[in-house]
Structure formats: C-alpha cells, structure tokens
Amino acid sequence: MNNQIPIVSLSFFTYSIRDQFWALKQMQQSKTIRYKLHGTSFAKLLGTGGGKFGFSIKPDFSTYALLCVWKNAAEAKTLESHHIFTQLKGKSHTSETYYMACTQSHGAWDGVNPLVPAVEYQSGPMFTLTRASLSAAKLLAFWTHVPATTRALEKSNGLLFSKGVGELPIIEQATFSHWENSESMLNFAYKSEHTQVLIKAKKQNWFKEELFARFIPVNLEDW
C-alpha cells in the first residue's frame, strides 16, 4: 500500500467512576492536542453522548474519544507510543482504536476539511463520520428531530456500532458509525426517517458548519 495516504485513527476510552473526573479534565486539551501529537495534521479529543444510537443530549462521562488524522501510515503507527495516548489508555478501563482511510469527504471542521479522500471503496465494511456545529437559533428544531434519526439508526440492518461524539454538549455534535457495507449505510441515509430530517436540516439551515466522511478499515500491518 501507498505509505503517503493519510490515515485516520479514532480511539475510544472508557473509564471507571473514580477516573471519570480526570478524563473530563483532559477535554481542556482538545483545541491544542494536535500540536502535541507529532505526525498529525488534525486531532481532537472528544466527549461522547449517552445514547446508544447517534446523537444524545445527555453526555456519557464514562467514554471519551481521540480523533487523529495522520500524514501517513508510518506516523499512524506511532499513535500508541505518544504520551497523550498512553495516559488516556493507562487510566481507562477499556480502549479500542479504529484505523481508517478516507474514501469520500465534504464539508468543514473549524473552517477546513481535514479528511482527504485517498482510496476507493470496493466492498466490505464502511465507517462514517457525520459532524455538525449547530446554529443557536436552530437548536430546538435539531433536537426535536433527533429521536427520528435515532429510531432510524436503531432499525438499520447492517449497523455494527454507533456512538455520538463532540467537542461541546448540545451545540457540537458528531456521530461515528460502523456498517457491514455501503448498501446498509445508504439505506439508512436515503431510505429511512433520517432522509426527511436531512432534507429539513438543509432547507432550514440548522448548521453553521457540517462535515460528512466515509472510510474503509485499514490494517496498519499491511501498510
């Protein structure tokens, strides 16, 4: 494989009650964490939502996520040796990291799109990341329609995992999802209750900024 293709890593860490306040305090680093992770072009420390499917207005204080965009596979392989990662993992009860390559991306996060499409999807599992920064005037409209999207996710065939993530509760929201294949994801996106919510969001300008990206899984040992 081409070692110049950017690699995206998303790590989830869960914490016992005694370490949850420590984990929450680490969120202060979210805006500057990229500069502490050599080899990344973009990085965020994220909180998570308490819902089992997608967005949730209730925070999950037991789980946090570290999103990194690495310049290439060689840099991505250094993730677990970084002090920040070892600290987060060392205090966690469980942890899991997904390594991915981007197949499609549009939109922006903090004014830029950090996710560059570099590979083509052929078949098999797919990951998606949907992120939005909500307009203050549209918060009620958004959260009123969240249950419909949640129901659609819960009913989706082929959904393997989904977790809401974000920098700030209520106004900065994202969902990471793992699908059996592209068809499963497309059925949710365009053939479920989610479709009408998406149309309404576009028409009513709910979002100040949004980003949508698709990925394929990567085994770093093959790169």
UniProtKB/TrEMBL annotation:
This is Spheroidene monooxygenase.
